[in-house]
User: What shape does this take?
Amino acid sequence: MLRVLCLLRPWRPLRARGCASDGAAGGSEIQVRALAGPDQGITEILMNRPSARNALGNVFVSELLETLAQLREDRQVRVLLFRSGVKGVFCAGADLKEREQMSEAEVGVFVQRLRGLMNDIAFPAPTIAAMDGFALGGGLELALACDLRVAASSAVMGLIETTRGLLPGAGGTQRLPRCLGVALAKELIFTGRRLSGTEAHVLGLVNHAVAQNEEGDAAYQRARALAQEILPQAPIAVRLGKVAIDRGTEVDIASGMAIEGMCYAQNIPTRDRLEGMAAFREKRTPKFVGK
Assistant: This one.
């Protein structure tokens, strides 16, 4: 459920420099809101390019890169939630109309920027994608770059690039097999198959699938509830756990155990670890401060 409105801070646009916008009636295509009150620590990124169904155009990508760079060093961000301001759409993928105007060299440079964007979404704090509508091509790649995914059961998603004479170029060929396994990822990419939110949940592509509501934001509501579950936990331990998992799954088990050991060692001198033990001893709820 949503908190009362007085606890919601207004959306804050972050302008990208050196770009001319063609999106959202001259407004910012990426907006940020830090929640307040009991939800303090949750920051939301709103993707808002209704004229192109949140397609990944130059301005959109520039603004999102700038937003992530500004938020990366903010230790107050405990959970980062990606959502859409366009009803029925999470992100429609590449802006093919814009892409048509590019030279071959320009396409290569832009796709490299997209890969960089997806890597930047690998944020220090946990990230959640709230998929209340279409997430196709680069839109699904964006969601795959997040730690957790929540979808409306009616949402439609897929790496459909092969149906357009392309292949996934922003991490899809790497993240989908790591999520689902090689054989299933190949099947989905080779066929360009579209999945419903329910089908994606059965395969393990999304963590949760929920029935859509009249407002069209059921996935967002569930994603926010998931963020609220993460919020009370020790933020340094959560971030280090994320590092241990992300880096450990890329290496053999012995190396992964070494990475876990290094992460654990970094957590030992924290005040939060001492607070957790004290709270257990005193039979009370711990109050973690991220130090």
In short: Confidence is low (pLDDT under 50) at residues 1-7, 15-25. The first helix runs from residue 58 to 72.
